[in-house]
């Protein structure tokens, strides 16, 4: 388990110089693990104190801090500010891989299809580990397509990204997974049934990876895209990004902010990018410095002939109308992708602070119709 409380400025009983400004931070941990929680206190990314146990106190100067609380299985992250008084943090966590699921799609929705990932067998009739050794967007990972990069375990489909050594900014020094539901698989010729979607609610319950330079996504591409055997190039095929995290301009290296986006053919519009109409639809940042790698969340879209609505745990955070003639990409079949990108133009470059391996846990994916 790991809990991080982040910030800048200030000091600790070890590093501070003004004893009169010191105050007590109390960290209380409620857990069901046999391993002892470890706590580390950071200031400006420098560790200034540490401790272990269920109840630990630190003497700190005024300022913002990052606190890491962890054992060998769980990570949590919180923000704390010391400003003239004592502060306390109460943390509760469970070692359960897949905590209780109480998400409700709404009474108007009927389950049409799902994969619950409960049989321990990676279903290659639906899912393909796509092989792409030099992906676009200046990304650093190689998608090898090996079974070790994507598999079922403990009720989840697990994607794994590893750092293989060498320069942090060198392409090919990372191995990762890109899993697609495209009929026919890698190039449309394997015979896999796959799974496509047109309209409805598409939802997945996911615990994301996170760290500097980690860019996970749950998204969709038009089934006619040429990269998997179709006759249409990108972005004319259409792209719906149900979630992306890791944006380099967001707090905490984007680990607590989800973005909703579509990409489409720019057509005859004035478009300085020339080849790609990038349309942000919304974003949402978790409160109190929380990160998506701490817990499972449900990421979903509600998609019909008029619009696409993005939701996080049932709360709307993005909306895009698709009822004009220039948005006909979004009125045909799409397939789903899950992947962990490393580096690239959207995110930062990993460094020694980025933990590896990184894991993306998909508890389930479901398609609902009305």
In short:
InterPro entries: Beta-glucanase-like, ConA-like_dom_sf, Glycosyl_Hydrlase_16. The chain is 0% helix and 45% strand.
The percent range for helix content is under 10%
- Please describe the biggest sheet, giving its number of strands, its sense, and whether it closes into a barrel: 10 strands, mixed
Compute the separation of the termini in Å: 40 Å
Structural class: mainly beta
Mean pLDDT metric: 88
Helix-strand string: EEEEEEEEEEEEEEEEEEEEEEEEEE
Look at the structure and give the CATH class of the largest domain: Mainly Beta
According to CATH, the fold-level topology of the largest domain is Jelly Rolls
Low-confidence stretches: 1-19, 270-274
CATH architecture of the largest domain: Sandwich
- Radius of gyration from CA coordinates: 22 Å
- What percentage of amino acids are in beta strands? 35-45%
Enumerate how many helices there are, as a single number. 0
Form type: globular
Give the beta-strand count.
Answer: 26
The number of domains is 2
Pfam family, one: Glyco_hydro_16
GO molecular function: hydrolase activity, hydrolyzing O-glycosyl compounds
Protein name: Beta-glucanase (GH16 family)
Domain GH16: 91-370
